[in-house]
Amino acid sequence: MTFTPPKIQKRTLKGHLQPVLCLAHSSERLAYYHSKKRTAIQRSDGDSDGVKSAADSDGCTHRHHPSLLLSGSEDGTARLWDLRQRKTAYCMIPPKKGGDVVEVTSVAFHPSLVEEIETKTKDVDRKGGSLLGEGDCTVYVGAAMNIYGYDLRYHATESTTAPASPILKEPHFNLTSFFRSKDEINQLSFSYPKHNDGRGRYSMSAVDDSGEVRVCEDVPFRYTQQSLDGNATKQPKVFYHADPETQALASCAVFKPRVNDLYLASGGTDCMIKLWDVSKPRRPTYSTHIKPQSDNETTTQLCNPPFVHSLAWSPSGRLLASAIGDGSCIIFRGEGRRLVEVGRLGWKEGGHGSAVASVCFPGFGLCEAKGSSLQVTSKSLLNGTVDDRLMITAGNDCNVLVWDLGANMVGNDAVDPALYLSRGGAIERGVDDSLTDIATDLDDMIIDNSSVKKKGKGGKPNDEAENSSDDDLIPSPPKVLFQIPHRHKPNWITCSRASDTLLPCSLFVADTTNDISIYTLQI
């Protein structure tokens, strides 16, 4: 089957005054799996036999789930964007340090809770049109060594006489005393509740430049739970990712989904990836040292050490992808308390020519919004119930690559991305004060990797690789489906998990400019 890249259109969110450093989307935790313990969602053809689905953090279908984007910038602000209304809903300004602007280096949504989603639909739009959905009412901002929380639902209903101000200058609670980070925070991350825990309890991690990862349980997410200057009642668990004498930074840490035990993967500038059992923080259950590629093809890769810039778990929790500074992306399979390397995607595989800045599993294949609920489409179920094959990477070579990891690496029960990444029609465009359509159709710019001859040393086509019979022996190896020229070095990427008629499945890219790029795919 010949793969045809989908039609993609680029839009731009404008509002920040300096480069955007971090992003989070309200649906990024939505992942679907096959389980008899969850509620079936009707397929688009009306047949629900064997199709079980649930939001991976909540165990529910996220009805009335809004499309919200959270961003943090060097300008010292965090913005909540309502993508359906195409405007900024709130602008949060963390407290300044000595009058100086403090960069916002990490942002996160508090995970939705089952009871909130089931009981709070009646509260939506009560105050003349709330932009917030059930559960997505508390956001967290990391600025320098501080972590602040904003209960946006409380802010929206605080005043009964006037509309809530879109600018929040004071946080609703300060979590700095909870985590006690020693240096600038690089990433905030939330855990996934245990399958057998119906209380929806979450742990939150903060990774910083001191080389430490700090984890706190049951952080406050409502204004009434914690006063602004309250002190933590529990000591944080500290995971020493980097040895102090190395002076290495811990750059990223993400919780593993789909497990009853709480596991956390961390990476940093010590070129190490470690897996931790959160209940036993003394030492990692597994660690591996990333070595430079032995067959580097470019001078850029030879000069860049294999720092770990970004980590991402696949929706099922079976795979861990790591963005490496030498331009490669290493894929691990999680096997209990250890990680097993199953592939390294570099220049020879059509990968990046410079450091990989960010990686994510978009999970486009299984979920689609129909009206006020999410549905599993029959198209996505033609070849499995796990959407672990599609991966997106962004590199300092200013390219965004869309990968198919293949059945050999992921397994035969995974959805083939080619089944739903088909070329669609034109995307309806709109312009307002906050979202500017740059009138750029990327259809002619997208590079289909399957039609480009692989180049060997010297830039000449590698005819030997083209005539090789390896593909006959390996029916489904990893490959780049297509690439998107982005023109600027990326800082962060994230995706919207659910598609609807107002906002198709989208990729969000923060880069060295002041704007956020939105690539919409008609799937």
Question: Features of this protein?
Answer:
five-stranded mixed beta sheet, 523 residues, 7 helices, 7% helix, mainly beta, Methylamine Dehydrogenase, Chain H, repeat, WD repeat, five-stranded antiparallel beta sheet
- Return the average pLDDT rounded to an integer: 75
What oligomeric state do the depicted chains represent? single chain
Number of helices, where a helix is a run of at least 4 consecutive DSSP H or I residues: 7
Rg, alpha carbons: 22 Å
The proportion of residues in beta strands is 25-35%
The secondary-structure class comes to mainly beta
**Dominant shape:** globular
Count up the domains. Answer: 1
Q: Which second-level CATH architecture applies?
A: 7 Propeller
Provide the CATH top-level class.
Answer: Mainly Beta
Question: And the CATH topology?
Answer: Methylamine Dehydrogenase, Chain H
Q: Which stretches are low in confidence, meaning pLDDT under 50 for 5 or more residues running?
A: 32-64, 113-130, 369-384, 424-444, 451-474
N-to-C span? 18 Å
Number of strand elements:
33
Query: Strand order within the widest sheet?
Result: 28-1-33-32-31
The CATH homologous superfamily is termed YVTN repeat-like/Quinoprotein amine dehydrogenase
Measured as a percent range, the helix fraction is: under 10%
What can be said about the biggest beta sheet? 5 strands, antiparallel
